[in-house]
Amino acid sequence: MAKWIAKHEAPEPLEGPVVATVTGGTILWCALFVVQLPFYGWFADRGQLWWVWTCAAGGFLGLIGIWYVRGREAALKRHAEAAAQARQDSGEAAA
Hints:
Elements: H1 18-36, H2 40-45, H3 49-94
Helix pairs in contact: 1-3
């Protein structure tokens, strides 16, 4: 079986409001969890508790995601500032 090789390069990843997107999703999961809590018995009687716990897991994983993307965003800003400073320093050294 031959090894698969891409015929073209992958496109650059899309950058957008990642922190806002993850935060919005986390708020949605947490809200769904809270809304379902009063109906816990109803879900339990019908064997559908996974709906409640899926929302709880989504909210918890969303909190981890917020922490991760905020750190990533800060690291990208630090890298951009360091690159700009290096370009500025090399421009001053050449002059």
